[in-house]
Amino acid sequence: MVPYRLPPVEASAAVADAGAFADRLRQRRSCRHFDDRPVPQALIEQLVRAAHAAPSGANRQPWRFVCVSDPAIKREIRVAAEAEERASYEHRMPPDWLEALEPIGTDWHKPFLEIAPWLVVLMRVDFELAADGRRLKTYYPAESCGIAAGLFLTAAHLAGLATLTHTPSPMRFLADILRRPDTERPFLLIPVGYPAVDAVVPDLPRKPLSDVIVWDRPAG
Predict the structure, then answer these.
(1) Cβ neighbours of residue 136 under 8 Å, at least 6 residues apart?
(2) Domain ranges of the chain
(3) Which residues sit opposite 111 in a β-bridge?
(4) Is the confidence at residue 220, as pLDDT, over 90?
(5) What pTM, to 2 d.p., does this model score?
């Protein structure tokens, strides 16, 4: 064990800082219109470094961030993703799901997979192989990857970058294209870049805070 200390922050200052942080995060939106302007690899590395600080089950850190900038690989990913998405939109999705997507204005065309300068594929690690060949199980890999993804998106937003959480289903093609081992499976595909000059996002409201926060428990 090692000592754990946090610098003291006066309560009113903490409330103000937390409020300012929340205000910045409330400007974050899922973006589908990217500029092709390059993003330095060093910046992507720092985003992963932030995400890598996430807590995880038994500290197994069950994630790999595969960062893709090669245009040829991005093209492969787009072609495969659009094939799966077209099948989903035309045959797999039930009517209520399609109706829920209408305000967002999405379809199976995914040009952002080539335009965004980076595609970051978060791979979920279900087990690792020890040097002696033993399988080392990970614990709560989905929950752990979800937290890491949230930190990645937050770090990207604070760095002035736009992102999208993209989940073409099924996603096995990502593991095949990226030549990932059987210990990993795709969890999330995140295009990363600067928003296009003419980028737009749907005008979608957030639920009021009173709908999503509960203090203690209801009486009775």
Answers:
(1) 60, 127, 128, 129, 130
(2) 30-194
(3) none
(4) no
(5) 0.95
